[in-house]
Amino acid sequence: MAGQNNNLKNIYLYARYERFWHWLQTVLIVLLLITGFEVKGLYSLFGFQTAVKVHNFVGNTWLIAFLFFVFWVFTTGEWRQYVPTTKKMFAVGRYYLYGIFRGETHPVPKRKDAKHNPLQRITYLMLAAILLPVQMVTGLFYWGYNSWPAWGLSGLSLQVVAMIHLAGAFAILSFVIVHLYMITTGHTILAHTRAMITGWEEVEDLDTVEDWEVKTKAA
Fold this sequence. Notes:
This protein is mainly alpha-helical. The protein has a single domain, classed as Fumarate Reductase Cytochrome B subunit (Up-down Bundle). It has seven helices and two strands; from the N terminus they run βαααααααβ. It has helices at residues 16-39, 48-76, 89-97, 118-143, 148-151, 158-182, 191-198, and strands spanning 8-12, 200-204. Helix 2 (48-76) packs across helix 4 (118-143) and helix 4 (118-143) runs antiparallel to helix 6 (158-182). The radius of gyration is 20 Å and the shape is elongated. The two termini are 33 Å apart.
């Protein structure tokens, strides 16, 4: 848990669609992981055929929802929240590895124009721009295996596609585990969860926070 700070201000940080996308994506990812690992034979829960059908349906739903999210990010200007920066990156890393356990305050407090710290920016950018598209493309190829000849993909290896897709699944699972820990690191254990439900989060008063990244709005 982060260090306690009495100089907090309640601000409306997350838009309604932003919160909807977060929880929808959470449900979709959990379903994909559960059914995907069952299809790989790690356990039996729904049954193979049902797991395949659910996995395919949820995967297509996620693809459509992701396209809407990309549209929303670029039409609202929220893409600026994901522009990577190295400023204070090491300070943030030190905070999570060491400072947070000493009750120190976060070196990069959240603001309306800078919701993500440097580590979050690079992580979410890699997730949205690399990992998720790769996972969706390999999943689409997997789903359309019988149509490969018609698509001109006869030379593609199903084993390679499957290995890449499985590796992506484990990478997403690792992100989920780390994310579950990170949501407990607010000024209270449930502060970040509350913010993603209501949209309102308590952050340090803007008058006392260093102006580190607000200029992104004018970029």
